[in-house]
Every structure is written in structure tokens, then in C-alpha cells.
User: What shape does this take?
Amino acid sequence: MKPLTKMIPKISLKQLYYFVAVAEVGKVNTAANTISITPSSITEAIKHLERMLDTQLFERASDGMHLTFDGYRLLEQARAILRLTQEATELFRRREEQFSGTLELTITPAVMGYFLPGPYARFKQVFPNVRVILQECERDEIEARLQQGTIELAILLVSNLSLQRGVHVETLFRSRRALWCPAQHRFATEESVSVQALAQETFILLALDEADINIKAYLDKQAVGPAELIRLQTTEAVRSLVAQGAGVTLLSDLLYRPWSLEGARILRKPLMENCPSMNLGMVWPETCELGPLAALFANFLRREFKSQGAANLLG
Assistant: This one.
């Protein structure tokens, strides 16, 4: 059997970092400016990856770099590798700090299913002596309990929040919404799409954390009446139906993937009109200071989103 060092392709963390940077913004120059490196260094790193893996990772087009199916597969693995590297660094950075006790977090279903698992797992690795109790509630129940002062820290989509007084609200990130359509759709060749063009389209809504209610209200405000509405409870089901040509949807860029599980292509088109963004954040009662463990978790989340970005946390 060959030694492991002989079997691993000569791929560096830096090359994976450059690859992820381009995959997230779709342009070499933009990625280069973001991470303060020359475009030629990024281009060479991507070419090296393609040679090592013997596959094409991007489709080069006039409007930027688009991930191929193999590129999308590598993106998930690259993000995981970079996260593991950061986790290892965090373990040693925090080795002198001792925290213990019980922390209760209140969260909504979408946060539990899509946003929190990664940061939660990394927090537990760094602070193994902190017991975290996750309590899932709908937004209206969270707001009522915040007013009663029975919640120390809640994590939810703050763009859905109706409670305006008596709470601290901190937004961790904002994600714009865009149109998703199949590769064979009439919108496929358009750079952007007017919401008015969605009239008479079959529209697929994600019925999770009020996403369907928000988008239906937006369409009603724009006086756009879809021919048919389909409500689904999982993002993967929405992706699959869109990719197969069953309809279109408006969803957050953070949830976008260019391929369905079946390997069918999904296109993302920005809207010409303004569409409310999806914002994730933390909320706690205005009359209370965060306790030591809640403050520790809040700071951990801030650092996670600042250092890795929202897309990396989900990837």
C-alpha cells in the first residue's frame, strides 16, 4: 500500500482558498481585490487545481466564472477543509480559556435547519464544557417570550421581526433574494428579470420561517399574480422542482446552489426591482445584559460570520 503522502495530490490550502473566493463572487478580479492578491495568482492556482484533479472547475464566460458540476462538488469539500483548518486554529487559540455551565438558545426552525448546525458544532469543539440547550420556537412565540423576559438570547431571521421596542437587535448578515429558474427557461439568457415578467409563471414557495408569506406579500404588492402557487417545506424540494422546469422561485442567495441533487442546473437572476433581503441576527431583551455564556456565544457567532462569511458557514 502506498504511503498516504504519496497518494494526496499536491494541493495547498491557499489554492483552495483562492478557488472558494472566485466561486463565491464569480469573477477573478473581484475575488483578487477582496483577498488582496493579484488576479494572476488566483488564475494560476485554479489552473493548478484543474490539472491536479483532471477536471474543469469553471466555465469561463464574458460575465464571469461559473462553477461546473465538478466545481460545485469541490466547493463543498474545499469549504469543509478550510473550516477544519480554522477550527484547529481556534482550539489552540482558546486552550487557555476555561468556560463551563449551561446556555439556553432559542431559535426558529430555519435557523435550526440551515444556519446553526455548523457554528454550533464548532462552538462545542472549542468550548466542550459548555452545555448548550437548543429550544426551537416560531417567531411569534419568541417575540412574546422576549417581552416577558424569559429568553436570554434568540437567533432568528430578524427581517421577519415585528417587535420593535424593548429588545436589542443585531444583524449578522443580509442576503438578497433573487429569481431561480431552470437552464431551459425563457429567462435563461436574461441578465436580470423584472418582477412583472413573473406574471402567469408557476411559482414555487418555500414554506419555512415565513418565506412563503413574505414572498407572496411582495408579489401582491407588485401586483403580480402567478398562474399557480406550489408550497414546499424543504429547500432541496424547491431546488429539484425548479431544476426540472416545474416552476420558478424567489429565494435568498445564501440558499442558492447551481445544481439540484439530481445534477440538473439552476440559474440565478437578479431582479430589476428592489426585493426585501433575508436577514439573520440575534435578539435579546433590552432590559437585560447578556450573561457570560450568552455573550461568549454571541461573540463566537460574530467572529464566525466575519471571518468565514455566511456562504462558508452553510457550505
About this structure: DSSP finds twelve helices and twelve strands in the chain. The longest strand covers residues 167-175. Confidence is low (pLDDT under 50) at residues 1-5, 310-315. The domain at 98-174+286-314 is CATH 3.40.190.10 (D-Maltodextrin-Binding Protein; domain 2).
